Amino acid sequence: MLLRLVSRSTACDQLRLIRGSLRRSLVTISSDEVVYSDHGDPRKVLHRVSRNLPSELGAGQVLVRMLAAPINPADINMIQGVYPVKPQLPAVGGNEGVGEVVEVGSSVSDLRRGDWVIPSFSGWGTWKTYAVCGASEMTRIPSDIPLISAATVAVNPCTAYRMLKDFEELSEGDVVIQNGANSGVGQAVIQIAAKLSLKTVNIVRSRPDLDSLVHTLKSLGATHVVTDEFVRTPEMQELMRSLPKPKLGLNCVGGKQVADILKYLEKKGSLVTYGGMSKQPLMVPTGSLIFNDVKVRGYWMTEWNKQHKNTNEMQEMWQFIGNVIRSGHLKAPVHSLVPFEQFSDAVANSMEPMTTKKQILVMDRTMVK
């Protein structure tokens, strides 16, 4: 069952009714949650439970009503037990999502009712309908952006922005080359790079619907879209000769595709790895290190968030991303909206090979139709 968004005013009317009951007591409010008690195949270990919320808020706590949350590869890896962050079991699934503050504790000053918030760290567990948590566990984000953009803003756009900003000084006309260009991060890289007047060379896997994918990525602002097979042809060499050498390469695949990118990278350029979908070690030619002095780096948004919470850098990032979303230059990834109770279907669909649609769980039916 697919859903579509309705006006926020309709949802707000519903929320006012909920708030009225919550001011009297929280004891009657329960949260539905998708949890796992053991690591393993998400299609087998996830189940839905309901638990009552605390009867009242602590001074530094907030009540958050979750609105929507995507299913990301990191979520799947965490449930499988192969992700660096391992929440204590049993755990609620999901690392990313947006919620709305319904009530605040007496000493909370930096959040207000109606604020949109996202978790401040990985492993928080976003696949639930309500949460009572410390205000410090939440980060306020702009509430005047589309719901699905808000639900998917914490991981992909922020990762893309930081990689474009933190590793090389890029100027108008510079080139970025990336693999996994149809991923959520890859799509965000394309759009943010276009906004910054950067050119992108985007590598994707061959597939039956390649023409449709190429059209989609170019509509987002991609300069060139090529397949992993095309990368090893003389035609690719000719294409790259027509462009400035890329200063920055972005890798989420690993294996031989790393060597393919390094072959075209400018001397002293940076290759940044933020994922490893092939589960293969990086193939880094010795010559790239010795003769081209390339820098091979890694990036993890979770660690950046830990180091930069409440800093000017974080505020500047949110301001930029919010402005780009509002201007229409950063769209939410291609997605399917799935009712929260159908989480098992969404999880299974998210694990299909070469999937192009992000599965997004919608907790609040008043936000969709």
Overview of the molecule:
Helix 5 (156-166) crosses helix 6 (184-195). The protein has helices spanning 8-24, 42-45, 73-80, 147-151, 156-166, 184-195, 210-220, 234-241, 256-262, 286-290, 301-308, 312-326, 343-350, and strands at 30-36, 46-52, 61-70, 91-92, 98-104, 116-119, 130-134, 138-141, 175-178, 199-204, 224-227, 248-251, 254-255, 270-273, 280-282, 295-298, 335-339, 358-362. By secondary structure, the protein is α/β, with parallel strands linked by helices. Strands 3, 5, 6, 7, 8, 17 and 18 form a 7-stranded mixed sheet that branches. It has a 6-stranded parallel sheet with strand order 11-10-9-12-14-16, with helices on both faces.
As a whole number of angstroms, the C-alpha radius of gyration is: 21 Å
Strand content: 15-25%
Derived structural class: alpha/beta
Pick out the low-confidence regions.
20-25
Number of helices: 13
Q: Biggest sheet: strands, sense, closure?
A: 7 strands, mixed
Fraction of helical residues: 25-40%
Q: Can you tell me the overall shape?
A: globular
Task: Work out the number of β strands.
Answer: 18
What is the averaged pLDDT score? Answer: 91
Distance N to C terminus: 11 Å
